[in-house]
Amino acid sequence: MRTVPASVVVNESQRRAFVALGIGPLWQSRAAPASVDRARPLFALPDEEGNWLFVAQAPFAGEGADASPPEAMRLLGRMLGALGLRAARSGQSLDACLDAGRPKVIVALGEDAARRLLNAGEARVALRGRVHEWRGAGGVVPLVVCEHPSRLLEAPQEKAAAWADLCLAQRAFHDAA
Questions:
Q1: C-beta separation of 97 from 48 below 8 A
Q2: How many Cα atoms occupy the beta-carbon half-sphere of 167 within 13 Å?
Q3: In whole angstroms, what is the distance from residue 31 CA to residue 160 CA?
Q4: In terms of Cα–Cα distance, which of 37, 73, 92, 91 is closest to 149?
Q5: CA distance readout (Å), 26 to 1, 23, 119, 153
Q6: Phi and psi of 133, rounded to 5°?
Q7: Rg value, the chain, Cα
Q8: Percent of the chain residues topping a pLDDT of 70
Q9: Dihedral of the alpha carbons of 150, 153, 154, 160, in degrees to the nearest 10
């Protein structure tokens, strides 16, 4: 078997191609994987009706060279508007949102939120494009994984796929309603 030097890095496009073809690279990166800080809370933003719940890992202040959190929040507001939704006045902790009522659909924004909500080790690209089930004390809620708005600001070419994810969430919402 041919080995590839550890210095070879697979970019996002190549990784997506591997996933789409159902194959993987024959090598593993020797670089330590980026650690996910589990202490960072999940930020939850319900719509005004409380039927939709958008969940993301809260950013650290000043995080992201290309996209500040206010820009990402404005983009999230536009994403909700495109679905005909209006965000609630402010975000809350995930537990507070779930205690306030059971949403009809959850949208996990980004890989960190998706992995934590689904208890999955799969990469974001493997989790996207399908409806998952989030199981909580109140029952089962459809969950769809979408790109985080900060990522969309850094990689605008991902917006079409994010819109497809939101359309999938809208179908899941109508099926659950």
A1: no
A2: 7
A3: 31
A4: 73
A5: 9, 9, 26, 32
A6: -115, 125
A7: 17
A8: 68
A9: 110
- pLDDT at res. 80: 92
Query: What domains are there in the chain, each with its CATH number?
Result: 1-33 (no CATH), 37-176 (3.40.470.10)
pLDDT tens-digit series, residues 36-83: 445 577 888 889 888 999 998 876 444 444 445 688 888 988 999 999
Of 96, 108, 92, the closest CA to residue 56 belongs to 108
Which residue matches tokens 């500040």?
A: 68
Contact (CB, 8 A) for 105 and 141: yes
Exposure class string for 33-43: b at 16+ Cβ within 10 A, else e? eeeeeeeeebb
